[in-house]
Amino acid sequence: MIDSREALERLKAGNKRYLSDDIPPIQINAESRRQLLKSQNPFAIILGCSDSRVPAEIIFGQGLGDLFVIRVAGNVVAPSQIGSIEFAAEAFGTSLVVVLGHTMCGAVEATIEQLKQPTESRSPHLHSIVSRIRPGVEPLLDAASNDKADLMRLAVRANIDTSVTNLRHGSRILENLIEEKKLLIVGAEYCLETGTVEFFDE
Predict the structure, then answer these.
(1) CA atoms of 82 and 84, how far apart (whole Å)
(2) How far apart are alpha carbons 99 and 52 in whole angstroms?
(3) pLDDT digit string, tens, across residues 179-202
């Protein structure tokens, strides 16, 4: 298994391929599927948003078996996400976790609206997502300018940072792997407008 820095560079290179109109898409065929029947060795774990415009394998130019992808609205961290990451890190030795948020995130926008004008939630399940985004976003409401776009930009990044922190300190298993230099957890933002992924806190 490759180390975390090499994995990070592979993701960056893949995003560059995705941005280039001259590079053909990854070819998947029966043989490539057969090769993965016995085992998998994903080189990176991606905790991303469920937004249909942000498919991790495509935007990072990767194929079958390359990424262990967990998707949930707002790229929030809950016990099931932590357990999935623990599993992949231990079972496959995957050394890189990327929390992948994106511009214009609907879950972040819904959280801002709920904080500004609280309403009774129609669903406790949706409320659980908002409640996980809230801690990172709420401090921005008083400090941010009245510009909605600026607030959204700051809120999306704050939410990514919150999820990264929750992963780094929400599991003894992950903490041990980090301390042993066997795991790196970073945040990243996908820009819907340009297709570019920007990595944070490398």
Answers:
(1) 5
(2) 16
(3) 999 999 999 999 999 999 999 976
* Cβ contacts of 75-79, under 8 Å, gap ≥ 24: 75/47, 75/48, 75/49, 75/99, 75/100, 75/101, 75/159, 75/160, 75/163, 76/107, 76/129, 76/132, 76/133, 76/159, 76/163, 77/47, 77/132, 77/162, 77/163, 77/166, 77/167, 77/170, 78/128, 78/132
pLDDT tens-digit map of 123-159: 788 888 989 999 999 999 876 556 888 999 999 999 9
Question: Residue 50 phi/psi, 5° resolution?
Answer: -75, -5
Q: What is the model's pLDDT at position 21? A: 73
**Range list of H helices, the chain:** 4-19, 30-35, 56-59, 79-92, 106-116, 124-137, 140-143, 148-169, 172-179
Rg of the Cα atoms in the chain = 17
pTM equals: 0.92
If one compares 107 and 123, the residue with the highest pLDDT of the two is 107
Domains of the chain: which residue ranges? 4-200
Residue 56 region, left (φ>0) first, then alpha (ψ -120 to 50), else beta?
alpha
Could you tell me the two tokens for 37? 């029947």
Q: Domain 4-200: which topology?
A: Beta-carbonic Anhydrase; Chain A (3.40.1050)
